[in-house]
Amino acid sequence: MAKAVLLAVLMALLAVLAYRLLDLCNKLGVFRELDPIEPANCHLIKGIEYGSEDITILPEGLALVSSGLKYPLLHSFAPDQPGQILLVDLNKPVLTAVELKISRGFDVESFNPHGLSTYIDEDGTVYVFVVNHPQHTSTVNIFKFEEEHNSLIHLKTIRHKLLHSVNDIVAVSSDSFYATNDHYFSHDHLKTLEFVLGLSWCSVVYYSPSEVKEVATGFRLANGINVSPDGRYIFIAETLAHDIHIMEINPNNTLTPVKTLHVGTAADNLEVDPETGDVWIGSCPIVSKLFFYSPENPPGSEVTRIENILSKDPKVTQVYVNNGSVLQGASVATVYEEKLLIGTVFHKALYCELHSS
Ligand SMILES: *[C@@H]1O[C@H](CO)[C@@H](O)[C@H](O)[C@H]1NC(C)=O
Ligand SMILES: *[C@@H]1O[C@H](CO)[C@@H](O)[C@H](O)[C@H]1NC(C)=O
Questions:
Q1: Which of 91, 83, 30, 28 is nearest to 54 (CA)?
Q2: Where are the domains of the chain?
């Protein structure tokens, strides 16, 4: 009797595990076939070779790019080189990245930048928030951007136990932000187990100097986060559910879920067009290829646009799909005027002219 029960329990566990693994393969795009979509006028950005994981564009068309991410299990073309923040002036006819100098006193050797966000105060001061992983930890660095010197002045480094595996960030004032944790665990092996089992234990944290709190939880790899142009809604990418969550910001900074939109791709970063409110998603269509990197069979790139995200009937369209022959492992897409910029986890960056037709 006891043996039969044990056997039944074991079979049930195996069935659950098999189901979880199959679902994971599905969510990682293992079985996907790619139909290319490539706008006519695309060019690589000069000076970006080691990643452009996150990109944020200032109102006058200066793009800040985080480059050189080193992350457990992910490939890097420059594993021994520190990460950088690059600047690209989108008003130029040919786009070229230059490295921003970082003020003295900041440890540039261990700089490992990931998510980026900016906040501009009433005086026009530009604050740049950077998720950084020195020595496998998670910190948030706040810098002041000095355009005239192409430099970043380090203001503050934030560490907090609730900010234990930070992926992306959205600044809501000069010293407060919302951030996603892409894992519940901090230890690398436990992270892998969490990933394989498909646990939905990731969170979103609100941080200000006077208060730090978890404001949403239950995500299966919480990734990109951003805010609507009116500052009322937060958008969160739940990568391994292929969902975008829309949440309203309350006066006490907590979040109230509004709705969830299924986008059919493992969304990485989310960028919001300040003019139209459209949400742009960069993603890797076959995520498993990010982990088992092969130059002959590289990870591809996908860009998805969501129009009218707050309406009853949002429109979700694929704008760019490439099998990695041009651009490997997209992680972010954003627009400035008629230019679409696409960044990648560890590869180059592309821009395409989007002529409204
Ligand atoms: C924060 O505000 C929301 C909505 O107004 C409310 O439901 C919630 O209870 C508040 N939470 C706290 C901790 O005050
Ligand atoms: C990617 O697509 C190009 C055509 O766009 C094709 O020539 C190439 O063989 C494809 N590569 C892989 C790895 O499928």
A1: 83
A2: 32-353
